[in-house]
């Protein structure tokens, strides 16, 4: 709090030193959490036997092993540090966020770590498992029917409480240092350093905030690597049409069924100039790839991992057809256990009118022959 006083010639005000002490301790706690965590694994993906002689490799960066189980743990840590050093987060600050689930889970974790109240504003369609995880960390879930209203509602709740709207969609690209300092790009390249293709031809990621593609795209340019960045985008998302037309004002007025990626607007953190290619992936393909990956690797993965894997496999197939060797890296964003009542529930698929059979057939044929045959959408 501010302490005004009169020194005889002018009035001055100083912030209570206890506030700075609290911030120092909060930063220490967040940094200590990172120090206790090991780096995430980079798995070799078992490509089909038909491709093993093609001199191509595929890797999955397993972000599901973070303390809160997803890639968003990195983002939440960065957003909290950004808010603390900017003076936006202080002792007792009520925090709010607009989220489709995983970011809110991770932010709830850090809010509990610092003893701060947290409200997650999410679409009512968010999986039950994610809502339960957020509430487990002591946060409150504020569900809205219109996915496009989450931004304004989160800002309104922060304003009413005198709190801070974390705003992942604006600050994701600036809260993370793209030059390195233990970001995901630096981690990937360090882990690839002893592989036969240490500089990947492609890194394939989804776009939720746009922060991950911005970090990786900037990092490879800064390091002067030839790596290219491909962003995969699900149905009903604005990123793909916005990128292809160059119109950053594109909106879809629809929510994505693939939680964690896809947005009804082109988010401020999305940096189109650092993206080299985009692939629009049908939701049925994302879910088919997630289930196929889970069966093949024995690790249940979420829908956004399926989206990324579909794009990575298409990229690998193209490289093989063109006789280009190299490696491709994509992300295992979170575990599939969070989606037991959606992507892994046949009843939910039927209610959504989603038929994954043609896409599963493409993946199975690719596994058997190494040939990629694009399915005809039903």
Would you write up a description of this structure?
With 378 residues, this protein is an alpha/beta fold. It folds into two domains: 37-67 and 179-369, Rossmann fold; 73-172, Rossmann fold (3-Layer(aba) Sandwich). It contains 13 helices and twelve strands. The chain has helices at 17-36, 72-85, 102-114, 128-136, 150-161, 168-175, 184-191, 211-222, 239-245, 283-297, 303-321, 346-352, 357-369; strands at 2-6, 11-15, 41-44, 56-62, 95-98, 118-123, 140-144, 164-165, 202-206, 228-234, 277-281, 326-332. Helix 2 packs across helix 3 (102-114) and helix 3 (102-114) packs parallel to helix 4 (128-136). The relative contact order is 0.13.
Q: How many individual helices?
A: 13
How helix-rich are the residues, as a percent range? Answer: 40-55%
CATH architecture assignment of the largest domain: 3-Layer(aba) Sandwich
Assign the CATH class of the largest domain.
Alpha Beta
Straight-line distance between termini: 62 Å
Query: Structurally, how many domains make up the residues?
Result: 2
Radius of gyration, in Å, reads 22 Å
Per DSSP E runs of 2 or more residues, the count of β-strands stands at 12
* Proportion of residues in extended strands: 15-25%
Average of the residue pLDDT scores = 92
Low-pLDDT runs of 5+ residues are none
- The third-level CATH topology of the largest domain is Rossmann fold
Cross-sheet strand order for the largest sheet: 3-4-12-9-10-11
From the helix content, strand content and strand pairing, which structural class follows?
Answer: alpha/beta
Overall outline: globular
- Listing every helix as H and every strand as E from the N terminus to the C terminus, the arrangement reads EEHEEHEHEHEHEHHEHEHEHHEHH
Q: Give the quaternary arrangement of the chains.
A: single chain
Largest sheet: 6 strands, mixed
């Amino acid at each position: 709090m501010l302490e005004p006083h009169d020194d005889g010639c002018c009035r001055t005000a100083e912030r209570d030193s206890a506030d700075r002490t609290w911030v120092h301790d909060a930063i220490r706690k967040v940094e200590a959490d990172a120090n206790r965590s090991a780096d995430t694994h980079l798995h070799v993906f078992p490509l089909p036997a038909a491709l093993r002689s093609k001199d191509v490799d595929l890797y999955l960066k397993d972000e599901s092993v973070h303390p809160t189980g997803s890639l968003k743990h990195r983002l939440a840590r960065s957003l909290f540090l950004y808010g603390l050093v900017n003076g936006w987060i202080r002792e007792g600050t009520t925090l709010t966020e607009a989220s489709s689930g995983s970011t809110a889970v991770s932010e709830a974790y850090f809010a509990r770590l610092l003893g701060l109240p947290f409200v997650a504003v999410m679409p009512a369609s968010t999986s039950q498992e994610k809502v339960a995880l957020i509430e487990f960390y002591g946060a409150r879930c504020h569900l809205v029917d219109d996915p496009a209203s989450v931004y304004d509602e989160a800002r309104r709740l922060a304003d009413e409480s005198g709190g801070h709207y974390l705003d992942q969609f604006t600050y994701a690209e600036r809260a993370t240092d793209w030059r390195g300092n233990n970001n995901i790009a630096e981690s990937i390249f360090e882990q690839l350093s002893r592989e036969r293709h240490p500089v990947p031809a492609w890194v394939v990621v989804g776009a939720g905030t746009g922060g991950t593609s911005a970090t990786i795209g900037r990092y490879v340019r800064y390091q002067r690597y030839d790596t290219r960045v491909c962003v995969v985008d699900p149905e009903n998302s604005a990123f793909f049409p916005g990128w292809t037309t160059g119109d950053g004002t594109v909106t879809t007025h629809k929510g994505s069924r693939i939680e964690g990626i896809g947005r009804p607007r082109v988010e401020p953190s999305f940096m189109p100039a650092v993206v080299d290619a985009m692939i629009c992936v049908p939701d049925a393909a994302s879910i088919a790839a997630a289930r196929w990956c889970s069966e093949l690797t024995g690790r249940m993965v979420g829908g956004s991992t399926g989206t990324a894997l579909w794009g990575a496999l298409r990229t690998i197939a193209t490289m093989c057809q063109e006789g280009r060797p190299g490696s491709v890296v994509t992300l295992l964003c979170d575990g599939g256990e969070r989606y037991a009542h959606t992507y892994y529930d046949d009843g939910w698929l039927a209610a959504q009118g989603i038929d994954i059979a043609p896409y599963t057939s493409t993946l199975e044929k690719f596994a058997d022959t190494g040939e990629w045959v694009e399915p005809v959408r039903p």
